[in-house]
Write a structure and sequence with these properties.
The protein is an alpha/beta fold. It has a single domain (about 10-200), classed as Ribonuclease Z/Hydroxyacylglutathione hydrolase-like (Metallo-beta-lactamase, Chain A, 4-Layer Sandwich). It is built from seven helices and eleven strands. The chain has a six-stranded mixed sheet with strand order 1-2-3-4-5-6, covered by helices on one side. Strands 7-8-9-10-11 form a five-stranded mixed sheet, with no helix packed on it. It is elongated, with a radius of gyration of 19 Å.
Length: about 270
């Protein structure tokens, strides 16, 4: 978690991926939500990942990017159901005539290992729960890229959104992504917020180290008296997240609850 910074504006970042940045910057969304337009060069069918918040001008800009490429949107796909990523999905599907696919959407459910195809483009679904229970990522093998939603951000770290988010699942998801980067299948991360990450392996290593360090800090805070405080969550937040701006403390509280649940299950 970090505050929004200037600098990331989206645009074409790989031969197949273009980011249209949504106008919803905040301490939680960084520069805004990254809406990803994916299509093979010269293809006429496009996939859009995370149409974002319900902002009509943003949706029209996404449509123009697709139209300028001589294509149409055939599938709208969600990395997870949080509103900053998914709120506009019904309206965008109406605008484009596309289907909406996500975890928990019935017959169009995204399942681990399944492949999304459109105009020669192929995306492999990787289940990466933890930030939320329905979080998925997508391997764009042709570009050696992974679209991670909120599982890994382009800057700072993400929240484990307890109670729907769960830390053990999140740590397992980081391990899955580490395995993808270890063999060179994935070298670049296309996140749900923030800039493109050109060194995927280094970012995954940072995230895994960060989580281990945070857990140790929480353990120490509990041992030093936070466990006996009237509100242990608040006591841990005040100590462990003291350097984090207070505007993101609501997210820190969710992560602390997830950490406490994780530690309690292993005590």
């Amino acid at each position: 978690m970090t505050s929004a910074l200037d600098g990331w504006r989206g645009g074409a970042v790989t031969p197949r991926a273009t980011c249209v940045l949504a106008p919803n910057p905040s301490p939680m969304t960084l520069d805004g939500t990254n809406t990803w337009v994916l299509l093979e060069p010269t293809a006429t069918e496009a996939v859009v990942i995370d149409p974002g918040p319900l902002v009509e001008d943003h949706l029209q800009r996404v449509c123009r990017v697709v139209a300028d490429a001589g294509a149409r949107v055939t599938q709208t796909i969600l990395t997870h159901g949080h509103l900053d990523h998914a709120e506009a999905a019904p309206r965008f599907a109406e605008l484009t005539g596309s289907t909406v696919r996500a975890v928990g959407r019935g017959h169009d459910d995204l399942a681990d290992g399944s492949v999304v195809r459109a105009g020669g483009l192929e995306l492999r679904v990787v289940s990466t729960p933890g930030h939320s229970s329905d979080s998925v990522s997508f391997v764009l093998e042709a570009d050696h890229a992974l679209l991670t939603g909120d599982t890994i951000l382009g800057r700072g770290t993400t929240v484990v959104a307890h109670p729907d988010g769960e830390l053990a699942a999140y740590l397992e998801s980081l391990d899955r992504i580490r395995d993808l980067t270890g063999g060179g299948e994935v070298t670049t991360i296309l996140p749900g917020h923030g800039p493109v990450v050109p060194d995927a392996a280094a970012m995954v290593a940072f995230y895994r180290t960060h989580r281990r360090e945070r857990l140790e800090q929480v353990r120490q805070a509990l041992a030093d008296g936070a466990a006996q405080a009237p509100d242990p969550v608040e006591a841990v937040v005040e100590r462990v997240y003291a350097e984090v701006p207070r505007e993101v403390w609501p997210a820190a509280r969710m992560s602390v609850r997830a950490q406490l649940a994780y530690l309690a299950a292993r005590s």
